[in-house]
Design a protein that fits this description.
single chain; 419 residues; seven-stranded mixed beta sheet
């Protein structure tokens, strides 16, 4: 199982210059390698073979390009092999329907990281502080907030500079032990959950728990003010650079709050259940449709699903994505479809008379489809009295962030209940 541990670096001013020097040298090498790569015809071999053909030129390049001798060998090789990863990433986006172009030269602000592969890095203690020793670079202090298990072998270390100027190190391990998943026939109904995501309530599950959406309105207002201030500065001036840093910090704050919420929520579902079913949403299509695209983008449903999937893999939990078409319209009791405008928040079936919150109805349909997709036998009818609770515990997003995900198991005393 591929896994990564991320730590913040605390470089000195001199070390920051060295990090930027190595980063920019890797950028120039990448641009040169990309030019060489585009001159190789596709008939010369596979993508990997053509990129390796460029990588094999590194020895000759060092004879006249003195700066390359300052890079550790695997760092230079990784900078060239990055071309292969970028092309594969573009191909995946194209398969999903995105309009993609071709690889271009990287400007200094667009090339933010470089990687040590297999060797050239180690942890050490100096003056009572943990440092990351990097060959041909420096011993950089690191905020070691958690341990990497001895049984896990670090394959590579990626150093990345954020737009705010902060440096981080990501340690990738490929041999992290993956716990076995429970047999589908052995999973109890109480250990299964279907999750419907939305905007008014971020998540509504089949255990009658609804989690409020993250309110970032104040952060967005501040970001807009700082962006307006940036537009008034002379581009490239010292004042412009200071204001650009402020804008980057606003973006970083929003990103951190959102990911903190999504990490805690996805971690809760992955740990508390043995089977999790969610919708395979076409977020790209939603963003292209008129209206509400800003809230859709801010919800980051794809990020939530990605985090939930890898956490389920880490915890040994069954994970399944289902077709979202009609999960809101279809009655979880009898299967009859009923059109509902977005402002109608209750499901009332004209065929069987079943009434419930529309998001709860969708969550049960998601779980039912997940079980069907996995080939698990289940009742065609959902027993309303036992399986579809009338009351819903609405958990504030503030409790998820401040107390962590376990708070979802303990309903707040003042929680509102909806029928």
């Amino acid at each position: 199982m591929h896994y990564a541990y991320r730590f913040r670096l605390k470089p000195t001013a001199e070390q920051r210059e060295l990090l930027d020097y190595h980063r920019d040298t890797c950028r120039q090498l990448y641009n040169h390698a990309l030019t060489e790569f585009t001159e190789i015809p596709e008939s010369a071999g596979t993508l990997n073979q053509r990129v390796r053909q460029v990588r094999d030129q590194l020895t000759d390049l060092k004879d006249w390009w003195d700066e390359l001798n300052d890079l550790y060998s695997t760092v230079a090789q990784a900078a060239v092999m990055r071309i292969e990863g970028s092309i594969k990433a573009l191909s995946k986006l194209k398969e999903k329907g995105y309009n993609v172009g071709r690889l271009n030269w990287k400007a200094p602000r667009d090339f933010r990281s470089f990687t040590y592969v297999q060797s050239g890095f180690e942890f050490d203690k100096k003056n009572g502080q943990t440092v990351l020793s990097l060959s041909k670079l420096a011993d950089i202090p690191i905020e070691w907030h958690r341990d990497i298990p001895d049984a896990e072998n670090v394959k590579e270390v990626t150093l990345k500079k954020e737009p705010t100027g902060e440096w981080y190190a990501s340690f990738a391990v490929d041999d992290k032990e993956e716990p076995p998943k429970p047999s589908l026939s052995d999973i109890d109904a109480d250990d299964m959950v279907g999750i419907d995501v939305g905007i008014l309530k971020y998540a509504h599950d089949t255990d009658s728990t609804a989690v409020g959406s993250l309110d970032l309105s104040e952060d967005r207002d501040r970001l807009e003010r700082e962006q307006r201030n940036l537009s008034r500065k002379e581009h490239g001036s010292n004042n412009w650079e200071k204001q650009r840093q402020t804008v980057a910090e606003c973006h970083q704050q929003i990103k951190r709050k959102r990911r903190d919420f999504l990490h805690k929520l996805s971690n809760y579902y992955a740990r508390e259940y043995e089977l999790v079913a969610v919708e395979d949403l076409n977020v790209k299509g939603m963003l292209e449709s008129p209206g509400n695209s800003r809230n859709t983008a801010s919800s980051a449903w794809n990020t939530f699903t990605d985090l939930l999937e890898y956490k389920c893999e880490r915890e040994g939990t069954q994970f399944v994505e289902v077709d979202p078409d009609g999960t809101t319209k279809e009655c979880a009791q009898c299967g009859v479809e009923t059109d509902k405008p977005l402002w109608v928040r209750e499901h009332s079936c004209p065929a069987c008379g079943f009434e419930v919150d529309r998001d709860a109805n969708a969550a049960w349909n998601i779980l039912s489809r997940g079980l069907t997709d996995l080939g698990v036998g289940h009742s065609e009818e959902t027993p309303v009295e036992t399986a579809l609770p009338v009351d819903t515990v609405v958990v504030s997003v503030k409790r998820v962030i401040e107390s962590g995900s376990p708070c979802l198991k303990e309903p707040p005393k003042a929680a509102s209940r909806q029928g």
